[in-house]
Design brief:
This protein is an alpha/beta fold. The protein is built from 16 helices and 13 strands. The protein has 2 domains: 138 residues, 3-Layer(aba) Sandwich (Rossmann fold), CATH 3.40.50.10350; 221 residues, Alpha-Beta Complex (Glycerate kinase, domain 2). α1 crosses α16. The longest helix has 20 residues. It is elongated, with a radius of gyration of 22 Å. The two termini are 36 Å apart.
Length: 390
């Protein structure tokens, strides 16, 4: 009996990791009902991080905090003893924008600081910030203000919300915020390695995804530059160096704020794989299926499917990938995966915006995997024919 581990990430904007895993399982079990299947929904720091943590030993608790536009948001945090995980996307993410309306210049990370305060009040010794999927580009200024940092205009009043407000920054003092987290292990879980500023910085690379125009991107990058300059002038000696650090641009600059508070960067993929006991599951598996919405160059930087494949290789377990699309050259994909199926190969329709269609296609991929690979029925995967769907 084949032992199969189905361990995908979400298909962003379409299906959750759990929905992807269930769809693959349906198809696989139809073709190979004898297979013993284990599902493992994964996350790398973006949406679904709390759910992934709670699939392990964490449990969920509710915190009401300030959302990206200032309205209250009820978010779940994951708790395991004195460790609390805060999912940035659940607090100030694109998915919690009122009516889905972007606010690229004014969206605030203040709610992240409030969630951190919640964790501190609960006696947390370790706080994990899962960084990804946010609507903000404020360099974590809102987070810092929530924890007591003084960020004021020339007239002494607090700066306005969002990255735009940083343009007016005159005086900065992080003492209270740093004191609040003294003695706490702050883990910054992300697989983004962008610096804070410049052409590969958070505004330039991720701003357009949050509704920023070209002019907005320039405004935000300049304002973030002002932020760094004011901090350096205020006696924060590592302000400029940390802005250049890999990951400082994660989650609209929340990575930068976390570094300023003494946090340590950690691969989100590796954090969750370890948390969820992936190595033990791999050791008990004959066959692994993973995937994400897009397999591309960013995937090779340690995104979940590749991180999982690397661990599986150490245990001699083959990994097959399913993705919404794949832009990797065949030889680069083959370095990590025994086969790759994509939904775009199966239909000409827009499955990215049709959850039901995506689920049906994923089930077809599961059947294909079972028919061609389980039980040694094939040595190689051939391209799948396109599905004729209504």
């Amino acid at each position: 009996m084949a032992s199969v581990l189905i361990a995908p990430d979400k298909f962003k904007g379409s299906l959750t990791a759990d929905a992807v895993a269930r769809a693959l399982e349906r198809g696989l079990c139809e073709a190979a009902p004898h297979a013993r299947v284990t599902r493992l929904a994964l996350a790398d720091g973006g949406e679904g991080s709390v759910a992934a943590a709670c699939a392990g030993r964490f449990h969920a608790e509710t915190a009401t905090v300030t959302g990206p536009t200032g309205q209250p948001v009820t978010a779940l945090v994951a708790v395991d003893g004195r460790t609390v995980l805060v999912e940035a996307a659940a607090v100030c993410g694109l998915g919690v924008l009122p009516d889905g309306c972007p606010a690229p210049l004014t969206a605030t990370s203040r709610g992240i600081g409030q969630a951190v305060q919640y964790a501190l009040a609960a006696g947390a010794g370790t706080i994990v910030l899962a960084l990804g999927g946010v609507a903000t580009t404020d360099g974590g200024a809102g987070l810092l203000q929530s924890l007591g940092a003084v960020l004021t205009r020339a007239d002494g009043t607090p700066i306005g919300p969002g990255g735009q407000g940083l343009a007016d920054l005159h005086t900065a003092d992080l003492t209270a915020a740093r004191t609040a987290l003294a003695g706490v292990d702050l883990v910054l879980a992300t697989d983004v390695d962008n610096p804070l500023l410049g052409p590969t910085g958070t505004a330039a690379v991720y701003g357009p995804q949050k509704g920023a125009t070209e002019h907005d991107v320039r405004t935000l990058d300049a304002a973030l530059g002002t932020f760094v300059g004011r901090l350096q002038a205020a006696g924060v000696p590592d302000a400029s160096r940390l802005a250049r650090s890999a990951g400082a641009g994660a989650a609209g600059g929340l990575g930068y704020a976390g570094l300023l508070l003494g946090g340590r960067m950690r691969s989100g993929a590796d954090y969750f794989l370890t948390l969820l006991g992936a190595d033990a599951l791999l050791a008990a598996s004959d066959f692994v299926v993973t995937g994400e919405g897009s397999l591309d160059e960013q995937s090779l930087s340690g995104k979940l499917p590749v991180a999982l494949a690397r661990r599986a290789r150490r245990q001699g377990v083959a990994v097959h990938a399913v993705a919404g699309r794949c832009t990797l050259p065949a030889e680069r994909a083959a370095a990590h995966f025994s086969s790759v199926q994509t939904l775009t190969e199966l239909t000409d329709q827009d499955c990215a915006n049709d959850n039901a269609l995506s689920a049906r296609l994923l089930s077809n991929c599961g059947r294909t995997l079972a028919e061609r690979w389980i039980g040694g029925r094939a040595d190689e995967a051939a391209p799948a024919d396109k599905l004729a769907l209504p």
